[in-house]
Amino acid sequence: MKQKKSKTLWYALAGAAAGVVNGFFGGGGGQVLVPLLAGRCGLDQRKAFATSVAVIAPLCALSAAIYYVRGQLDVGLALPYLLGGLIGGFVGGRVFKNLSMTWLRRGFALLILYGGVRALL
Questions:
Q1: How many helices and strands (H and E) does the chain possess?
Q2: Are 30 and 52 in contact, with CB atoms under 8 Å apart?
Q3: Is the pTM of this model over 0.85?
Q4: How many structural domains compose the chain?
Q5: Domain containing residue 47
């Protein structure tokens, strides 16, 4: 029972960290959540990626709603990105199951590196 409570606490803390990052930067919570889910929470890598998407989607919707209410979201500008993102998400979800974990981890690492370099420049 105590171990289950400990796991639940870690899941909640991982979700909170993702929510803070997502709310603060307008996205990127998955970059925090995937390593926490895989490392600290003990999910296998593939489940960590999938769980991250399930957690981040509502967090992104909440962040977008907050930005919209504050007048900081241009819905007209966002719509083409949303359409492309939906298509990309569908394709990525279909390809996801066929990729080896080695390539998924490498791709994720490159994405994090790219984001870090772009943030510094």
A1: 5, 0
A2: yes
A3: no
A4: 1
A5: 2-120
